[in-house]
Each structure stands twice: as structure tokens, then as C-alpha cells.
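Weekly sync, protein design subgroup
Attendees: M.S., D.O., the rotation student, P.L. (late)

Item 1: inverse folding check
M.S. brought a backbone from last month's batch and wanted to see whether the design step gives back something sensible before we order anything. D.O. pointed out we never logged the input encoding, so this time it goes straight into the notes. C-alpha cells as presented (345 positions):
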């Protein structure tokens, strides 16, 4: 049923694009439609990537997962950079890490109940996020005073970004040699698309996602004003959840089926991938458009640190439970409230 709904909801994307270019509706409506349209697009990109990986082998498959699995978030971030919405960029990326750690993992534990987790794999992912947070301090601390967007901060962001990408490549290489991918998806239900079909779907879905992302970013200002919300809150909570919608739903479905170990792997590995791959990739690619400073705000860094420590403490015994899931979800609610109170810089 869920797959049928996702297939049907793909019609939202062309409808939103036609409405934008032919009618020019209210931007409040455009934001809502664009956000809704990104959810099935993110799912379709994930589907096409998984089908392609079956033909290309683990090496190229891992590259496709890393590149296209985060395509919606990457595209949203780059369009936000082009529009000089740097707070939106950083907020959506930090919000994505926190969302995976607390919200997705929390619901996975809640629906999955008791079960054993892969403790070693969990702490590898948490360790990667912790290292990323420490490296983010290098450009963030000098940005606490003065203009956080100044070029010197953007230049100071390059070394941490490069180090994180090197770490990501090294960890991914080791994982591939062990025939495991950092990003684990549920292969159930795959019907064996051909490689040509998979790549064609991937290309079309990515192009359409780019068009929808442009509409979404362009309407954030109006939506924020109409809803009396800060752009930072919208980016860190709403956009972050929308960009990860497919993975969010996938993890919960897997947990509901009883495979809590895989569900936790999806949530934790996705969080690590955003922290050590997507954020540095955006920071470096942004130089082709506008220099981006990784000048995360104190509230973002504190939330990231608390999320990592709390999750590590809850998973220390390598066991899941509904009560642990409730704690993570409650913490995410508190985080969302903190982002709301923080407002724009």
C-alpha cells in the first residue's frame, strides 16, 4: 500500500513545476507542495540507486548510494547557497544529522521493541559524527564573533571538510572490503530493474528534484513569514525531515517488520554519512557558487554533541527497547523547541 501511495504521489512533482511556471501561485502554497513532492522523489532516487547497485557491484554501488542517496539534501543545499541562504544550508544539514540520530532511531526503537543491535557498527557511526562535530569547531569558534559569513571563515572550513572526506573514503573502503556498506537499505521487494532503466530513472528523478528544490528554496522566505517561523527552524526541522523522508520511512518499516538491527543501522549510518560526507561535500562544492563557511551556531554544536552522547549512552549495552526510543523522540522534541527559540542569527 505504501509503495502504491508513493508511486501515485510522484505526480505532485510535475504538478508543482507546471503550477510554478504557468500560474505562479502563492509562495506559501508552493513551499507546501514542493516539500510534499520531495518525499516521493527521495524515495524514487533511493529505489533507483538500490536497483543500480545490484548490477554495478559493491564498489560502484557504494559510490552511487553515497552520491545519490543524499541527492535531495545536496541539491537543496546548493540552491540555498546560490540564493545566499547560508543559515538554511547549515540548518538543514545539522538538522539532518540530529533527525537521523534522534527522530529516526527513536521511532525505529519504539516500533522495533526489544532486540540486539550491532554495537560495533553503531559506535563506528557515532564516532564518525563525534569527530565531525569536533572538526566543525575549527571554523565555528572564530565565527562566534563578527561576521560568520566572512571569507576567512569559509577558507578555514576547507581543511576540516577535506579531512572528513578522507575519513569517509577510508571508512567506506574498509567497509566495502568487509562486504558491508555504511548505508544499508532494505532490499526486500526489488524487482530487478535493468541498469539502463535504473540510471535513467536516477537521472530524471535527480533533475526533477533540482527543479523542486529550487521552488522550495525560493519560497522559504514567504513561508517563514506567513507561518511566523524562523528560516533556521524551517531548515533545521522541516526541510531536514523532508530531505530524509524516504530513509526515515524505510527505517521505521524495517523496524516494524522485526529487523531492529537493520533499522538502527540505517538511522545511524545515514547520520554519519551526512556528517562526514554530505556536509564537507557541500562546503567544497559551494566554492563553485559562493564560498560557504561551516560556521555552525553554538545551539547546533551543543545539540549535535548532546545527541551523540545521549545516543551512545542508550546504546552502550547493544540492546534496543521501546523506552529508549521514547527518550530519543522526547529529546528530539526538546531539540526542535531549542531550534524554534534560537530563531535566526
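Designed sequence read out in the meeting:
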Amino acid at each position: 500500500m505504501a509503495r502504491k501511495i508513493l508511486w501515485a504521489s510522484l505526480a505532485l512533482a510535475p504538478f508543482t513545476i507546471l503550477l510554478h511556471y504557468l500560474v505562479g501561485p502563492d509562495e506559501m502554497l508552493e513551499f507546501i507542495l514542493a516539500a510534499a513532492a520531495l518525499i516521493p522523489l527521495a524515495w524514487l532516487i533511493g529505489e533507483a540507486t538500490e536497483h543500480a547497485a545490484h548490477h554495478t557491484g559493491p564498489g560502484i554501488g557504494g559510490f552511487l548510494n553515497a552520491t545519490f542517496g543524499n541527492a535531495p539534501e545536496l541539491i537543496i543545499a546548493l540552491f540555498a547557497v546560490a540564493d545566499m541562504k547560508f543559515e538554511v544550508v547549515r540548518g538543514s544539514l545539522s538538522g539532518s544529522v540530529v533527525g537521523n540520530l534522534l527522530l529516526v532511531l527513536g521511532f525505529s526503537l519504539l516500533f522495533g521493541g526489544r532486540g540486539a543491535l550491532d554495537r560495533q557498527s553503531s559506535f563506528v557511526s557515532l564516532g564518525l559524527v563525534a569527530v565531525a562535530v569536533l572538526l566543525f569547531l575549527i571554523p565555528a569558534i572564530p565565527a562566534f564573533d563578527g561576521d560568520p559569513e566572512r571569507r576567512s571563515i569559509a577558507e578555514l572550513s576547507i581543511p576540516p571538510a577535506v579531512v572528513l572526506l578522507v575519513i569517509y573514503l577510508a571508512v567506506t573502503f574498509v567497509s566495502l572490503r568487509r562486504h558491508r556498506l555504511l548505508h544499508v537499505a532494505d532490499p526486500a521487494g526489488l524487482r530487478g530493474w535493468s541498469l539502463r532503466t535504473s540510471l535513467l530513472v536516477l537521472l530524471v528523478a535527480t533533475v526533477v528534484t533540482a527543479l523542486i528544490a529550487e521552488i522550495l528554496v525560493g519560497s522559504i522566505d514567504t513561508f517563514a513569514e506567513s507561518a511566523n517561523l524562523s528560516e533556521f527552524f524551517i531548515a533545521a526541522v522541516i526541510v531536514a525531515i523532508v530531505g530524509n523522508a524516504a530513509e526515515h520511512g524505510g527505517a521505521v518499516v524495517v523496524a516494524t517488520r522485526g529487523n531492529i538491527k537493520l533499522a538502527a543501522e540505517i538511522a545511524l549510518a545515514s547520520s554519519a554519512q551526512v556528517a562526514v560526507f554530505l556536509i564537507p561535500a557541500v562546503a567544497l562544492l559551494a566554492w563553485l557558487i559562493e564560498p560557504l563557511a561551516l560556521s555552525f551556531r553554538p545551539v547546533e554544536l551543543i545539540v549535535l554533541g548532546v545527541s551523540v552522547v545521549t545516543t551512545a549512552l542508550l546504546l552502550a549495552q547493544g540492546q534496543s527497547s521501546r523506552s529508549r526510543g521514547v527518550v530519543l523522540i522526547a529529546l528530539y522534541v526538546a531539540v526542535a523547541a531549542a531550534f524554534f527559540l534560537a530563531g535566526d542569527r
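Discussion: The radius of gyration is 19 Å. The longest helix spans residues 27-68.
Action: P.L. to compare against the previous round before Friday.
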